[in-house]
Every structure is written in C-alpha cells, then in structure tokens.
Specification:
Chain B is α+β, with helices and mostly antiparallel strands. Helix content of chain B is 32%, strand content 25%. Classes of the chains: A mainly alpha (191), B alpha+beta (162), C mainly alpha (217). Chains in contact: A-B, B-C. At the B-C interface, helix 2, strand 1, strand 5 and strand 7 of B face helix 1, helix 3, helix 4, helix 5 and helix 7 of C.
C-alpha cells in the first residue's frame, strides 16, 4: 500500500517503519505523520462500508487510537498500512453490525422517492443514493471484499493477509458482490 | 429509457467509489488528542510503577534490616534446678521485667532452662517460680544494690559469635 | 534517588526505635495509678531533657511493679537511678550510651571508683566501655575487692584486650554461693553460659572444683 503523499514534493519522507520507531521511542507527535498518510484512505473505506460519514469518522478515529496503543505490536512496520486496515475493517464490522439494518431501510426509501421524481434525467444525487443503496444491499463480507478489491485495489494475497479469509473465499465474495451490483445497477437504469 | 453513460455502469460505479474522501480536521484533532492523553497516562503509570518499585525495595530493605536482621546478641542459657516447680520464668532488663515474656522449659532431669539472646553488656535478672517466688540465680553473682527487696542476679554478656 | 531512599530508611529506623520506647512508656501508664504515673513521667521528662537515656529508668519502674513494690518506693528508686545515671555520665567524661551508663552505674554502685571510669574512657577512646565496666561490677559481685577489680580491668584494657577477653575474667572467680562445677550444661547448677562453644568463657575444665577467689573482702 503506497502512501498518499503530496504529488511533486521532493522532500525526504520518513518511511512508516522509521516513523513508528520514533513514536514507539516516545515521539508522540510523530504519530500525526501516519494519520496524515493514511487518514483519507481510511475515511474513504469506512464511508463506503458504513454508508454514513459520521459513523465512518468515528470508526477511523477509533482505529487510529487503537493502532497507537498497539503500535509496539505491529510486526511488519513496512506494511503499517495493511496492519492499520485490518484494525479498520474490524471496527467497521462492529459498527456495521450495530447500524446496518437502519441504513438499508432509509436508503431504499430515499432512492425510491428520488427515482419517482425524475425518471428521465440522469440525476447525480439519485446516482449517489443508488451507490449507497446498492452497496448497503450487499452482505457485509461481500461489501468488504468488493471495496478492498476494487476501491483499495489490493491483491487477493494482500486481502487474505488483512482479513484472514482464504483467497478462494474472497474471490467468491467479490464475484457475488459484482454480480449483485450489476443487477442492481441494471435495475436502476431500466426503471 | 434513460441515456446510458458512455462507459460500463460498473466502471462508473467503481470510479465513483474511488473518489477521495477527506478525513475531517476535527477527526484528526480528536485522534491526536486521544493519542497524547494516552501517552501522558502511560508516562504517569511508568513513573508510578518506578516509584512503587523503589518504595518496595526500600520497605524490603528496612524489613530485612529491622525485623529479619541476623542474630542480634549472644545466646545465653538460663537454668534453674527446681524439679518441684510448676512454672518458672526469667525476668530482667532484657525483657523489661515482663513475667509472661520468657518462660523456662522443664527438662527430663528436672532442670528448667531456656535460651535468650542478649545484647552485650551488664544484665540483671531474676527467676520467678510458680508465679510469686522470686529466686536469684544460685550460680551467678548478685547485682549490686537491691532496690526492691529481692536481689537480682548479674550476668555480663560479651559480643559473641552466635 | 539513593539519597532519598537512604533518608526514608533512616527515618523508618528511627520511628521503629521510638515506637519501641513508646510501647514501654504505655506499659507504665497501664501499670500505675495516675498520680504515680505522673511522678514517674516527670522524672522521665527531666532525664530526657538532660539527655539521659530513659530506658533504664522505665525498666527500673517495671522491675518495681513486677516485684509489687509500693508506688512511693518505685518513684524514689527511679529518681535515685536518674541521679546515678547523671553521675555515671560525668565520670565517663560527660557522654555515654544507655548500655555504658547502665554498666557504669552498676560499677559505681559496686564500689568501683569514678576515676576508673574516667581511665577506661581514656584508654578506650574509640570503643565503648560497656563490657569493661560490666566486668568490673561482676568481679566485685564475685567477691573481688573494688580496687583490685579496677586494677585488673584497667591492666587488661591498657594491654588492648578486646571485650571477649575481658568478659572471660570473671569466670576465674567463682561466686561464693557456687557449690558445683561451672562446666556448661553439666550436672547441677550452672551459671548462665554464652552458647558460643565456650569461646568467651575461657578455659574451664569439667569435674574440677571451682577455684577459690584469690582475695576475700
């Protein structure tokens, strides 16, 4: 997982391993480097996964604080991003289990209303709602796998290492997710 | 039928999912605040453990020095041959004249005896037989002066090795 | 950090000693009626203010109580002892540990001359004089004349004799009342013996009759 550094900045950037070493040695402020580096990506994943900005931010905050506390236990410091994401995935699973049902019902009703209002034009708002709705309709592990594969663009090996699931199981989930999404999108376009 | 976007809806869908999301500044601030608080707590805890460790060592050292100190004084055996007695105690400056502190034990040949550790110096003592009979040690010199009638016995204890 | 720990250790040691003294003081309170306790406490306070050790005074009061002496008698004796301790301290050059003062008081009481105390203090300026004083008192108690007892103790002290050697001296002088051997653990009477393998009691042979003291008072 490469970092999201500012494009074109030639300054020497401390690696994840170096930064972790500093934090573990007592330089608490150095942890903000890791937050800056991975925060947006984590926010994106959590937002897509949970469908709710506020909940997503809470999951991300929670993730980073836990990462700080467990930092000395991060075995592969060069792959801090993966390690961080495994924590994030767990946090999102917990949060998603809590509020999953609510979100799905809400999104569907909204989408139905919007679609009914403007059936002929391509509506950006409706489209965004469709995305949320379609994702929300996926079963959690499928959603997770789909996001990791297509949004985070991880290899199946990396996904297996992070989630702990087998590669074939992950492939199956991604396929099922893709099929269902296609179907949902086709439904939306043919409505 | 609505106009289809020029690309595969799936690709558009994924492209939209990939749109960046910014972690709010507020969330970042909250993360760092929690991390700093955590660090401060950890430092405090480390200091407390350090202080406790020092205190524990000090307490242990005191315990050893004061209570578990190696044999203080020289072992001295007191003996009184009174086979007919039921109870014999020795009292003296070393046990602050407490008639309950140092009972003697009767041996098979009728001699009552006990061993006490005494600090080096001059010590005065007496036996009390059956609770009310004050008996000086027949085998020891009498202490000079008898303030309260019954004379005491005198023993000089030198710094010994036991 | 080490200095702090040292101070704590010292402080706690002092507290322990003071607690000990306090315990015995409390015993007095429990044993005597309030007027007697007040009188005794006054003597103790004076002694304390004069820098004299109170432990021998408390022990004397406890002795009197154990022997069921009258309150008046006890107060008188304790007051008297306080004065004796002060005299002993003067004879010892104005200072002394509780043990030195107790042994010195016994020596003076036995008839040992104050000059002997001063001489011992001079001879042993770096070491405590408790044992030489106790030995001198014991020699007199065993029938040796005070001036002779002083002479023997001073001679040994001047020759650099250590406490263990000095303590062996009285063993050569049998108590007048002894009627059997001084063999440690032997049949019949035995004097209180130090259980250090006889190292401090000097050469004593089993079965031999006790030596008669060389000088009779």
């Amino acid at each position: 997982m490469t970092d999201d550094g500012a494009p074109g900045s030639p300054q020497v950037v401390a690696s994840d391993a170096e930064t972790i070493a500093r934090v573990v040695a007592g330089d608490t402020e150095a942890f903000s480097i890791l937050v800056d580096r991975y925060g947006n990506r984590a926010a994106r994943y959590a937002t897509r996964m949970l469908g709710d900005r506020a909940e997503a931010e809470e999951a991300v905050q929670d993730t980073f604080v836990r990462a700080y506390r467990a930092l000395s236990r991060c075995a592969d410091r060069e792959r801090f991003g993966h390690w961080l994401f495994s924590i994030l995935i767990n946090r999102c699973r917990t949060a998603g289990a809590r509020s999953g049902r609510r979100a799905r019902t809400f999104v569907r009703d909204e989408t139905a209303l919007v679609a009914a209002a403007a059936p002929d034009a391509f509506d950006g708002v409706a489209w965004r709602e469709e995305i949320a709705h379609a994702l929300a309709r996926l079963e959690m592990s499928q959603r997770e796998a789909f996001l990791l594969k297509h949004v985070e663009q991880l290899s199946y090996e990396e996904m297996a290492a992070i989630t702990g699931a087998g590669i074939s199981a992950l492939k199956m989930r991604v396929k099922r997710a893709t099929d269902q999404l296609r179907m949902l999108l086709h439904e939306a376009y043919s409505a | 039928m609505p106009e289809l976007p020029p690309i595969d809806p799936m690709d558009a869908f994924i492209a939209d999912l990939q749109a960046p999301v910014d972690l709010s500044a507020l969330a970042t601030a909250r993360i760092m605040a929690a991390v700093r608080a955590d660090a401060a707590r950890r430092r405090r805890r480390a200091r407390t453990w350090q202080a406790l460790a020092v205190a524990a060592v000090v307490v242990l050292a005191i315990g050893i020095a004061v209570y578990v100190r190696p044999a203080d004084g020289t072992a001295v055996q007191f003996a009184l041959p009174v086979p007919a007695a039921h109870e014999v105690v020795v009292v003296g400056d070393f046990n602050h004249w407490d008639t309950h502190a140092t009972p003697l034990r009767r041996t098979t040949n009728g001699t009552w005896q006990t061993t006490v550790r005494l600090k080096p110096g001059a010590h005065v003592y007496s036996f009390v037989v059956d609770g009310n009979r004050w008996v000086a040690d027949p085998a020891a010199p009498l202490a000079p002066g008898s303030d309260f009638g019954a004379p005491n016995s005198l023993v000089t204890v030198a710094p010994g090795t036991t | 950090m080490m200095k702090y720990a040292g101070a704590v250790v010292l402080g706690l040691a002092v507290v322990t000693v003071r607690l000990d003294a306090q315990a015995n003081d409390d015993r007095l309170r429990g044993l005597f009626d309030p007027p007697t306790y007040a009188s005794l406490h006054a003597v103790l306070d004076s002694a304390r203010n004069a820098g004299l050790p109170t432990e021998p005074l408390i022990d004397k009061a406890l002795e009197g109580s154990a022997k069921h002496a009258s309150s008046d008698r006890i107060v008188t004796v304790v007051r008297d002892l306080s004065a004796r301790l002060a005299d002993t301290r003067t004879a010892l050059g104005g200072y002394g540990t509780a043990e030195e003062l107790s042994a010195g008081t016994a020596a003076l009481r036995a008839g040992i001359a104050p000059a002997t105390l001063a001489d011992l203090r001079r001879l042993r300026h770096n070491e405590q004089v408790t044992i030489p004083l106790a030995v001198a008192a014991e020699l007199v108690a065993r029938g040796v004349r005070p001036d002779s007892a002083s002479a023997q103790v001073l001679r040994l002290a001047a020759a650099g004799a250590r406490d263990v050697e000095l303590a062996a001296l009285p063993r050569s002088f049998a108590s007048p009342s002894v009627i059997s051997s001084l063999y440690p653990g032997g049949p019949g009477f035995s004097a209180p013996t130090a259980l250090d393998g006889g190292k401090s009691s000097g050469p004593v042979e089993a079965g031999k009759p006790p030596k008669r003291s060389p000088q009779r008072p």
